[in-house]
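DM from R.C. (forwarded with permission)

"hey, sorry to bug you on a friday — could you get me a structure for this? deadline for the figure draft is monday and I only need the backbone to look sensible"
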Amino acid sequence: MVNMALVEAERKQVAWGNYETNLHFLELVGLPPPPLRILEIGCGKGAILSHLHSTGFQCTGIDIDPDALKDCRIEHPELSVELSSGDAIPFPAASFDVVLSFDVLEHIRDTDRHLAEVKRVLAPKGQYLLQTPNKWTNIPFEILRHVKKMHLSPVAAYKEATREHCALHNYWQLRLRLQRNAFEPSFIDVPVVNEYFETKMRNYLGALGPALLTVLNPDKFPMFLRTNFYTRAVLRH
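My reply, with the result:
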């Protein structure tokens, strides 16, 4: 039986994922001033795009979830969004200066095809700004999440977790993958522990979760052990 309390809590979030930390990443990167053409892959309900649109950027979004896009069009009618996947982007070449994705890469099985599409729609010297979880830390957490949320056995939870997150990378795999696809990556030191992160730990580990953060704070880990990789990938040509 599905834990509907956890499902409902996730659905009610302003955005799927660590919204505040994702915005902080964009601040640290320092986007060029408007006008700037931005595409977000996996835009969901449009929270990040709406924030960027309000500051003058030309924003477009795509997502594979029609329900999320329906919510996005209701809550943010100013945005241009389309139903599409990240490995078949429905726009001409060189349409965007920046492409964004948060918690998307790990869901796309053919990562090289996805990166080829991102490269195609980027203008010369464009940037792909992405966040994706670390393979080494994400699999154990996703097993726990599916046990708690879906009440699966550990084996079934592992199968479901690796089905959903079918393209996880560790630090070196992600760097190499981007370099092989004509991107020059740099990894940005972005703290992830905030109220959202602590709540997630509490939901899945109980009182032990926040207590663990006092002795095992992922923000203090070396980059290759971070829970999430915040990456700026600049197109070489």
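R.C.: lifesaver. The chain has ten helices and seven strands.
me: no worries. Residues 93 and 149 are 41 Å apart (CA to CA).
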